From TrEMBL:
Keywords: Glycosyltransferase, Membrane, Signal, Transferase, Transmembrane, Transmembrane helix. It catalyses: glucuronate acceptor + UDP-alpha-D-glucuronate = acceptor beta-D-glucuronoside + UDP + H(+). This is UDP-glucuronosyltransferase. The lineage of its organism: Eukaryota, Metazoa, Ecdysozoa, Arthropoda, Hexapoda. It is an enzyme of class 2 (transferase). Residues 1-17 form the signal peptide. GO terms for molecular function: glucuronosyltransferase activity. The keyword Glycosyltransferase applies. The chain crosses the membrane at residues 432-459. Its EC number is 2.4.1.17.
Length: 476
């Protein structure tokens, strides 16, 4: 076990260099030290880090790109902090909002958000939930760092809020454990007030989120998910809470579900509503009056969904990447191919016994219903894909190792000539052995001709002798 963990760590530290965007704009030297404590270990592990910080940084590391939020530093330097030592909660909120909004406006940060693809966004919790938009438009995980003790607003983003009765809020902590009844009541009261405040604030946060991030999402060419989904992704809860099974439906990133005819879409919704399953549908626009078991999102983390144990079926266009992900995860396909390689992928999958193919038409919904009925009433497709998945995963080395290996091999051996196909060294007629055939034929023809000549000569001689004896006999 120890051995395998060590191998895993080795792979993690050498195999994958991730691109991580750290947005840590809190303008205070102590916060900045904390930020460095996050950035440095990432660099040390070999990752590429882009760090938005109010402070100037020089030559820290070759893999660090710094976006200097100079305006924020200057803004704070110009403020009379000392004169504001007894500021209240509202002032702090306004201050942090100014910082967070000003950060989102920074042209350098906007440029990388639009033009580059990161693997994760790390940001500091600074009372501005609209910052969920950074990770939402990158379509990557959002990692929050908090510099104050555990509190319900942070808790809400990763869990259910359940600390109110047991963990004192930051302003309500004098160290007594367990909390006295009075302190617990105060905890409850503060939490209530904070919720009221949040409720009043919600429309501002939502509109700030939309006004800042929808232009950036448009520039990246991705849909901006509704604020609630970006801020608190409930997919995990939906998947975990659906032991009866989940059907995942996505027509991929190029084909847009919203280009379905309205009557086709409505018929699909009606069909899904009649199923005893949870349906996750990648659909780019909000839909009014969704059945309670159907959930739409403009974007879905496909592989993470497919590998969830409750997923029973994947309705897909049958693109190769989707098909491979489904095979990897062991989920049967209901394929509705549209163009390109999709029809032949779907046919292959059907022939292999882990898919049913339905033709894409405006009136395809009865066929989809029949296919669902056929696939969900038996374990055949499920068992078949599990078997194929097992075979698919049985490899001597992971494909990612092979990519690295062959690219390095090609570079280091200057072209990997030693493993090229030897066929490339021959002329076409040599590959087909035409010259050989020609020689064989020539030899055969020559032999046959020679034999023929010899036979004729011999025959002629024998016959010639006979004729002579016959003519001699006649004369006698
Ligand atoms: C910088 O990143 C590259 C590629 O990710 C890596 O090979 C290199 O070792 C990194 N440099 C340092 C000093 O870690
Ligand atoms: C926030 O920004 C606004 C507009 O720039 C300014 O009027 C206000 O004083 C700032 N508030 C704080 C607390 O920095």
């Amino acid at each position: 076990m120890k051995g395998s963990i060590a191998v895993l760590m080795l792979c993690l530290s050498s195999g994958f260099a991730y691109k991580i965007l750290c947005i840590l704009p809190v303008p205070s030297k102590s916060h900045d030290h904390l930020s460095l404590g996050i950035v440095k270990p990432l660099l040390k592990a070999g990752h590429q880090v882009t760090w938005a910080t109010p402070y100037e940084k020089k030559n820290i590391h070759e893999n660090l790109t710094v976006i200097e939020l100079k305006e924020i530093r200057e803004f704070v330097e110009a403020m009379d902090i000392m004169g504001k030592s007894d500021v209240g909660f509202q002032y702090m909120k306004e201050f942090s909002r100014n910082i967070s909004i000003s950060t989102t406006q920074h042209p350098g940060l906007q440029k990388v958000l639009v033009e580059q693809q990161f693997d994760a966004v790390v940001s500091v919790w600074f009372m501005n939930e609209f910052e969920a938009g950074y990770a939402a438009i990158q379509q990557v995980p959002w990692i929050l760092v908090s510099s104050i003790s555990y509190h319900p607003f942070l808790e809400k983003q990763v869990d259910q809020v359940r600390s109110i009765s047991t963990v004192p809020l930051a302003f309500n902590d004098n160290g007594d454990r367990p909390m006295s009844t009075f302190r617990r009541f105060i905890n409850g009261l503060i939490y209530m007030l904070m919720n009221v405040d949040e409720w009043f604030d919600k429309s501002t946060i939502t509109s700030t989120y939309e006004s800042i991030f929808s232009p950036l999402a448009a520039k990246r060419g991705v849909p901006l998910p509704p604020f609630e989904d970006a801020y608190h992704n409930d997919l995990q809860e939906l998947l975990d809470g659906s032991p009866q099974g989940v059907i995942y439906f996505s027509m991929g990133s190029i084909l847009r579900s919203s280009s379905l005819k309205p009557h086709t879409r409505d018929a699909l919704l009606k069909l899904f509503a009649s199923l005893p399953f949870t349906v996750l549908w990648k659909f780019e626009e909000p839909i009014k009056d969704l059945p309670p078991n159907v959930h739409v999102r403009p974007w879905m983390p496909q592989l993470s969904i497919l590998v969830h144990k409750n997923v029973r079926l994947f309705i897909t266009h049958g693109g190769l990447l989707s098909t491979l992900e489904a095979v990897y995860a062991g989920v049967p396909l209901l394929a509705i191919p549209v163009f390109g390689d999709q029809p032949s992928n779907a046919e292959r999958a059907e022939l292999a016994g882990y898919a049913v193919k339905v033709a894409f038409r405006d009136d395809m919904v009865p066929d989809v219903a029949a296919a669902l009925q056929k696939m969900l009433s038996t374990d055949t497709y499920y068992n078949r894909v599990k078997q194929i998945s097992k075979t698919f995963r049985m490899r001597p080395v992971p494909p990612s190792d092979l990519v690295k290996f062959y690219i390095e091999l090609a570079i280091e051996t200057k072209g990997a000539y030693h493993i090229r196909s030897p066929a490339l060294e021959y002329k076409w007629y040599e590959r087909w052995m035409l010259d050989f055939v020609l020689v064989v034929v020539a030899v055969l023809v020559t032999l046959v001709t020679l034999i023929k000549l010899a036979v004729t000569a011999i025959l002629r001689r024998i016959l010639g002798k006979k004729q002579k004896t016959q003519s001699l006999k006649k004369r006698n």
